[in-house]
Amino acid sequence: MSKKFKILCLVLAAAIFFTVVINLNTGFLSLSLQDFLQDSSQSQIAEIRINRVLVMLLAGISIPTSGFLMQEYFQNPLAGPDILGITSVASLSVAFYIFISHDLPIPEFLQNSLLSLSAIAGSLGLMLVLLSMSNKLQDKSYLIIFGFLISAFAGAVVSLLQFYAENQSLKNYILWSFGANNMVTRNQIYILSILVLTGIFICFKTIKPLIGNSLGTSYAQSLGVNLKQLKILIIVASSLLSASITAFLGPILFVGIIVPHFCRLIYNPSKLWQQWILNMFLGMLVMMLFSVVSEKTQIPMNVISSVFGIPVILLMLLKQNKV
């Protein structure tokens, strides 16, 4: 590893540690170190803040990794779980689950697992469709248009469900869609950690084949890269990572696009191993900053990510147009 890469990692790690400390001290009440380490009258508040930090770190690892995988596979800097409609379909799946399960006698300990599974199933189904379309369309940029159409369709169906939903179901969906990171429990974090670690392990298996794939299909095949297996691994990893976060935190938009973009600006984009590590570091830092802003302003997480992400994507489009 180069000296520049090591310095970048150290700087990002120090910034993450600093923002973690800020997060733990951000809230309506001031907490002491004793509240975090021992039982006290405010230990429950301390636990909520620790859970908030943990889930933001997991989101910072998952969402940029998902976007990184898709951008490298499609060779398109605008590819991502939200632009291609994966987040929208995951949201639609969660909406169906929330509205349908309201009247069903589902045990409480199964509700969170079924919520996550519904989001993963929806995003996995869409990814299969997207990859099937990519084989038929020579210009993969058409997948962006297809993703927008899917997002619009999913949004229309969700609006229809909201129109006919009961008050409590509608309230549950709206609260979920706001991205309430304070509502994630420790048990949910355990489930989310298993899903994220599984996605990261699969991602680890894809980096070396992606390096060959970036040099061209023919060259990748000459190196022995199994392109069909790579496609399946990309489907499973990106869907698992993006859908698991969407299930527990709601749709957090554009982070999967802007973080890989910034990583390519600050370090050699051809070095995929280092790019993946930088994506995780920078993703954790960005999500921790979003968490601080959300707690200070009481603005939902998905609103903050959209306000930050949309101008960045517009600048990316303008830059590409000039080139």
TrEMBL record:
- Could you tell me the Gene Ontology terms of the biological process aspect for this record? siderophore-iron import into cell
A Pfam family matched in the record: FecCD
Gene Ontology molecular function terms on file: transmembrane transporter activity
Q: Entry's InterPro entries?
A: ABC_BtuC-like (IPR037294), ABC_transptr_permease_BtuC (IPR000522)
Keyword Transmembrane assigned to the entry: answer is yes
- Xref: CDD domains: TM_ABC_iron-siderophores_like
Q: Give the domain of life.
A: Bacteria
- What Gene3D superfamilies has UniProt attached to this entry? ABC transporter involved in vitamin B12 uptake, BtuC
State the membrane topology: Multi-pass membrane protein
Protein name, UniProt field: ABC transporter permease
